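Here is a typical sample entry:
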Amino acid sequence: MLTRVRHLQVLVLVYGLLCSAAITADAQTSLAELQKVLQEKAAFAETDFAGLARGETIVKLAPVLDNREIALSGLVNLRASAEYFLRSYRESLTQRTNGAVLEIGSSSATPSPSDLQNLTLEPQDIEDLKACAVGNCGMKLSAAMIERFTREVNWQAPDYAQQATQLFKTMLLDYVRDYHARGNAALIEYNDKSDPVRVAEEQRELSGASSYLNDIFSTELSTQTQPAEEMLVWSKIKFGLKPVIAVNHVTIYRRDGEFGPQVLAASKQIYADHYFDSSLALTAYVTVAGPTSFMVYENRSRADGLDGPLGKFKRKIVENKVVAGLKGVLEHSKLAMEAPLLGPDSATVAANDGGWKQRLFGGIRPLLWFMIISGLIALFLLRNYEEKTRTAGVKQLKPEER
């Protein structure tokens, strides 16, 4: 059961930060205290807090330990209820709240084939699976999965596409069941490339590297704080280059502090068939003395394609894109969340803008695709440039030099 894996270290630490009212035991938790934590642990500056006081949205890049990783944090003040925040978040987990979401679903308490009945594979993915081999595959799969596609699908049969789709759904269901039973010990090892990627290790490093979430809260909370709810959700997302199928373990914590509700929603990626090696996203509704409410966000994601000869150049492009993207998402979310308080004109603007649910939670929850989609398109263009450069270089060589 998921309850066996709910005490992920980073969740406990984040919850400690976001429920800082409880940490100080009835002390007057203030905005200044929250700012002090963010300043010490996340490199937020005084100028950032001055901008926050003026109603600005603050987004900061965070240090990373791996060339494949992008990390950033966001902070915006809110005038909206925690109940609305939670209701909208829950709805987003199982409803197509954005045009980019092609298919969506969730795992039941006892995972069954009906959980994945609406999931489909793209024709190009099926064709890629024909030539799939361990260490060289067009989809992110384990070695055992790749070998099963070789053995169990009759690629000469007229219905090979249906066979491949059914086998993929069967293996994904088996994986979800195993994760339900064993937690992180069941996390997949990707063998689509020559260097394997172990998702358990990736997640451990992502949670351990969190810039302002570590060493903040006592481990005592791990025995006292229980998730309000947990679920596994899957999505198929229109991604520009090709749709991406991903499965996320979502955990929601809530408690009522002295000054108001504190909510944490954590989204841990346990599978993605393209691009992403791992991702951990945390979105929180925080209340401090006043009472004043904030939305705090942190995401750490690792994507293949951020290293290589043009790694620094590619990283700069992606970082600029994701900072601007996250800032825009948070600003639109703030507008839509506060629209009911600001009158009909603001509500109309928010509705025309697509709604905060679509922007904040449309895609792999929360915010991931909106943050990084444009950056990956840039990576795609750079890959094409690299390939053309290599091809041109080969053509210029004399036959005896090749």
Strands lie at 58-61, 69-78, 101-106, 189-190, 197-198, 229-237, 244-257, 260-272, 276-288, 292-303. The longest strand covers residues 244-257.
